[in-house]
Records
---
Amino acid sequence: MASILSIRDLRKVYDGGFEALKGVSLDIEEGEILALLGPNGAGKTTLISTVCGITTATSGHVSVGGFDNVAEFRAARALIGLVPQEITLEPFAKVHDTVSFSRGLFGKPADPARIEAVLRKLSLWDKRDAKIMELSGGMKRRVLIAKALAHDPRILFLDEPTAGVDVELRKDMWAIVDELKAGGVTIILTTHYIEEAEAIADRVGVITGGELLLVEAKEQLMARMGQKQLEVQLTAPVDAIPETLAQHELQLVNGGGALLYTYDTRAERTGITTLLNDVAQAGLVLADVQTRESSLEDIFVGLVSGDGTPADAVQGDAA
């Protein structure tokens, strides 16, 4: 598929010398969902703000649907919907007027039916005549989402869209994301809810310290970097791992009541058969065995902490 958003060597250095973005390059395909993960201060919001033209890049280039986001700002920005982290709404304006005005800002003709459809999807239709100041925090977040969708963008940025909101809104939001993707809308989201990224994203990007560590298909990332663990539960706890089991690099867990073995599912041999034989030879009696696979959160924590990042993962598919 064609790239609808192309970012090349994007850098942002603030007046004090802080380098928020360090040569980020990224291509995003039309119709995909990209989850951008990173700790606080990683550069996620700066990247989004720069692409949207809110922040001016120190150097680099951004193309949105073929339009330069500086030289052809209006055309580029019209393709983008943005749901920011902060709730910035006119408190005395009515919900319906706020959303309709946002559509007009992008040169779209009035379309009451479209505005009604957006408000209904976000459970805001009954609040259409309410002032923003009368709404709860969760309802205000819904209004932000409605504003971002009002002009029918081809790209939607969701910057921590469900942070601090109710479970109902989170479910509504992801239902809308599924519908938008089906309609060909490209979605880039940042989130601290890594399980959400794991559930809905096509690709995952990891950014930290202003650098993009990798961008990779979610399934490929988890297959390449994920590990499985085998927990060998014992009938009686032990104080230490027998020396005859040292080669397996086991961990003693559950107060000595279990042995934890980590292995790579891609290896030619997992070593499980040998391990279980050696455990029996050491005189330990098994009560049960359980396995678990690394989650996206496990992989993410390992990457940003500097553990387990393969040398060829720094650029990944980002260039």
Note: The chain has ten helices and 14 strands.
---
Amino acid sequence: MKIVKAELFMVDLKPKVKRTDAIQSFESQETPIVRLTTESGEVGEGYTYTIGTGGSSIVALLKDHLLPKLIGHDSSMIEEIWNKLLFSTHATSVGAITSLSLAAIDTALWDLKCKRMNQPLYKVAGGAKSKLQLYTTEGGWLHLSTEDLVKDALAVKENGFCGSKIKIGSPNPNRDIQRLEAVRQAVGDDYVIMTDCNQALKLSDAKQRAALLEHIVLSWIEEPFLAHDVEAHKKLCESTTIPVAVGESIYSMQHFKEYLQGNAADIIQVDVARIGGITPWLKVAHMAECFNKIVCPHFLMELHVSLCCAIQNSRWLEYIPQLDTVTLDKVKIENGFAYPSQKPGLGINWDWDVIHKETLVKYTIE
């Protein structure tokens, strides 16, 4: 089970649609990929991502510091490896680059574990359910017209999706309200509508908008403030009936603990890459269950579908395809439900011909 070779690649995936929110636009998805080979010839593959910056920093941390520490290590000792690597970077953690780098390694180790057990990830990690309903973000970007928002919501509802997430945070709050009212009127009361502020608001703005939006009956208001501001999220939770969602910009289990203990969030959106891999993701999800909180993770639907089906307290999966251009198989979707792969491992079937052709980085250590 000892690791004898570690390989690193990075591809830059261009979004298929224009993606804009209240603070940024997305032009690339740098995707570092790690392959680990054991002395018996087993291969585990994992990955992480950025939204346009930081890919070279993740590559440097992996190449110069983390991957060399794996050679000769027992690949089945996942907890030991994760904690040793975290401690080895204690001067730079907690931080995005460290967590994203750890995720590439940790997901590869879990891929090895599941393949060794000849079981899919969702069963090895818990096996709580066999499918999960989807909501879409791809039709809710801030630059889209009200007409386009309504058209997309009606289309995905027809395909069985449970809801749509609409970006908000326009300088004029009336624009946000009018857009959301139009969608609600078109789709009816049995359709889920979420909103996402992308950390763009101040507390007074968020309280005002939440009060103006309550009649629309939203399933959540996401990331109203900067992620470090637990107190502002708590005050918003106390002032509105709209559930508050956080998690995509949180990089440590301890930060989630602060939110849960402070009752500063209703929906936990833990991201498997940004939290540092499957090992800490599962801990956060189970911690959220102890506080009677719902888990609806951010992005990475190709991996989160299996993790959500591993836990009891997941509810919806975010539909944003990421890996279609570099994988041979897509996530199975039927009538608005996503199904986890039944294949041993993570269930991500990488197209290595494309990856070798498109890679911006190639590094091997033995």
Note: The first strand starts at residue 3 and ends at 13.
---
Amino acid sequence: MNGVSSGVLISLGAYFLVMIGIGIYAYFKQANDSEGYMLGGRNLGPAVTALSAGASDMSGWLLLGLPGYMYADGVVSIWIALGLTTGAFLNYIIVAPRLRVYTEIADNAITLPDYFANRFEDKSHMLRVISALVIILFFTVYTAASLVGGGKLFESSLNLSYSTGLWVTAGVVVAYTLFGGFLAVSMTDFVQGVIMLFAMVIVPVVAFTDLGGVSATTEAVRNIDPNLLNITSGMTIIGIISLLAWGLGYFGQPHIIVRFMAIRSVKDIPTARNIGMSWMIVSLIGALATGFAGRAYVQKTAMTLEDPETIFLVFTQFLFTPLVSGFLLAAILAAIMSTISSQLLVVSSSLTKDVYKLFFDREASESRQVMVGRISVVLVAVVSIMLASNPESSVLSLVSHAWAGFGAAFAPLVVFSLTWRRMNRNGAVAGMVVGALTVILWVYGGFEHNGMPLNDWLYAIVPGFVLSTIAIFAVSMMTGGPEASVTAKFAEMESHLGK
């Protein structure tokens, strides 16, 4: 084994041990009940909440996808960063405080389907079942795709087999999620968020230094193609709207907003917001800068780069020592694993609370629910590994649409359930179904606009979000107001927030 591989493996091995160690610590620290395992006892501090939400959100997209987008298309990639930043900020302002208070008022809801059912006092369980099915289906596939990323990283950077990378990535994530539950996931996310932030600062700084500074790098990019510096190059109004619309998805991502349910107090949310937004802005700038510097670096070294999304890996290989390179590769794994663990836990919680307890054992004890939750983590991981066993698996095609699917199905429902007293259960069901179906038809219906697939012309989340919103308003207004007990809980939520 060469020196580079040995140094890299030392760093990665240390990283894996830290993650598992956190899982063991969380196992002994958390309460052995469903709220403790699935929501950390609603006792997360603001820093852990913020970095946990950020790390579980960004995934490998931050270190691979966004730099690759900047590398390939230039500064037009800034539009998507602006959309995401705006969406994340509004999520902290609109959703976070209301959801933290309302989930407790709504019979101490622990999962998002749990909240929907309790918020609207849905005795038919329709809301809970439909939302749980959406979460279980999409997140199982999403987890599989994230595992593919881990397998490919091991294959391309460590010369190990894809299968080995798949099992190692899954094994470590399952280990700390299985034992430590939500607390372990959140604490590891915090550590992973710190690692990702460091990587997103050091890589572009070293790259720009190697290229002679920002001015020299900018001039080099200009000489390659001046359009790379034009923020509207090749863009239409519809195209810009599509990129900015990524921000709409934040309101409906279960693995992100569950952090708001778990923070210890609504008073901690402003601190969490400041930490989380600072982390996000620095990380996004670093990712964009990495792709920008990468374009000049590849030109300078006359290398061939077949896949723009590997530019971060190129820098780790050529600009850093083996130990630092291993740390930077750990940052990619941190991004991948933080998302996998969050998704595993969300699916596990939904299987436990919204399937097992609802249909099989309504009197299940707290310890039994925790046991079912742990079994569910393993089962979902196994299914995901099976789906990910082929690196070219078609599940990857779903990942680019999962954000739109959750955003259209859940985002309007979450926002209006927290802000509109008049909304009723029928409107909630209609909005969720219309949003999900719109995205599915928009993406897979085979429809075109001027010879272009609809989703390439306009991102599916836009029509999905709009039509879901219309359905919520229209159906709620046509089917009568909610029960007095429902509006009473809404008034209690507003009272807690000082509205």
Note: The chain has one domain: 3-392.
